[in-house]
Amino acid sequence: MIALQFVVTALLALTVSAHNVVLPPYGRRCFFEDLNKGDELSVSFQFGDRNPQSSTQLTGDFLLYDANGRDVLKTHRDVSYGDETVNVPSKGRYSYCFLNENSNVMTKDVTFNVHGVVWVDLDDPKSDTLDSAVRKLSKSIKEVEEEQSYIVIRERTHRNTAESTNDRVKWWSIFQLGVVTINSLFQIYYLKRFFEVTSMV
């Protein structure tokens, strides 16, 4: 019986799968998972812009519904990224949605990772088996990869912001140089004309 339980655990453990979806203006995207009591569902996500030249950090909403689809278990409002984990209290179809209902940004997209359906042994929740250790290590590696992906997007956003600021400073400096040059030429012309008139008198 224990061997059969171990095999079932190994078969039910799924690998992390990364997804990317576009959120329409004032729209939402929903997904679902069929879970059993005791399963664990983890979702990590981040909102971004598909335009590589954009320097704006976009935000959105995240909702996690229970099996009946009416009660909200977890919620994140107006965030750029998030991570949520829930232990399923009962069997059913659990759904999670990404919302863009308060914005008309058309290029907003969501990159999210579902940490699969992790089968939990209710009789031995702190299992110290090799299979459990491998799954924990795999989950930790995936979390590091997701964090690196988030850092890459943040670096791109901040770099675009810095380059935009540098451009503004450059053009403002050129404008100031032009104003100083024109002012100097005007003063030279005015003083020259003033002394020419004085000498004629």
TrEMBL record:
Q: Where do transmembrane segments lie in this chain?
A: 171-191
Q: Name one GO biological process term.
A: endoplasmic reticulum to Golgi vesicle-mediated transport
Q: Which InterPro entries does the record cross-reference, listed alphabetically?
A: Emp24-like, GOLD_dom, GOLD_dom_sf
- Record domain GOLD: where: 28-116
Instruction: Enumerate the SUPFAM superfamilies for this protein.
Output: Supernatant protein factor (SPF), C-terminal domain
Keywords recorded for this protein, A-Z: ER-Golgi transport, Membrane, Signal, Transmembrane, Transmembrane helix, Transport
Similarity remark: Belongs to the EMP24/GP25L family.
Q: Where in the cell is it found?
A: Endomembrane system; Membrane
This chain belongs to the protein called: p24 complex component
Signal peptide span per the entry?
A: 1-18
Its cellular-component GO annotations read: cytoplasm; endomembrane system; membrane
Q: Which domain of life is it from?
A: Eukaryota
Please give the chief subcellular localization of this protein.
Answer: membrane
Question: How the protein sits in the membrane?
Answer: Single-pass membrane protein; Single-pass type I membrane protein
- Is Lipid biosynthesis a UniProt keyword of this protein? no
